[in-house]
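Render NmrA-like domain-containing protein in 3D.
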Amino acid sequence: MALPLVAVVGALGTQGGSVVQALSKSGSFRARALTRNTESEKALRLKALQNVDLVRFDANDPALVKLAFDGADYVFAMTAEGEDETANGKLMIEVALHVGIKFFVFSSLPDPSPYVVPFFSKKHAVSQFLFDSVLPGCGIMLPFFMENFLDMGWIQKGEDGVVDLKFIRVPETKSSEYENPQSPFLPCTS
């Protein structure tokens, strides 16, 4: 009997890549690593893993989404910032329903209301669409990736050799965790 197949959206990213690697390492699943660029060095490293296939994917293209999900048992999905995340997420859920996906895992973020944080709001809208559908699934909310400190240039070594951790915070910007008296987090000062 063939191992269950998991289609992993964003397989070259931090989340997707770690999911593909974990599935491969488990020996209990096959992973279909979905990415726009199947010829990159990173993609070819994933393809070399046990029980991993590489498939070209574009969340804006319904035909490619169907091709990527067809025959899979499960989907691990996320949406890319800067694209029409809500439309892409809804399309993936609709296609997953159509092809008979057994369970759909979506990497989401919490509803930022009453604050306006489009990056959070769009992912939350996709989760709500999933929950309102008949597709079995769940939304997961992963913590901040420590790699972001390096990737986003927040850690920098100065000319004097001192390493600085830099965050930009506009004083008039409201932050729900800092200002919510019910928050389990301690107030932060900058």
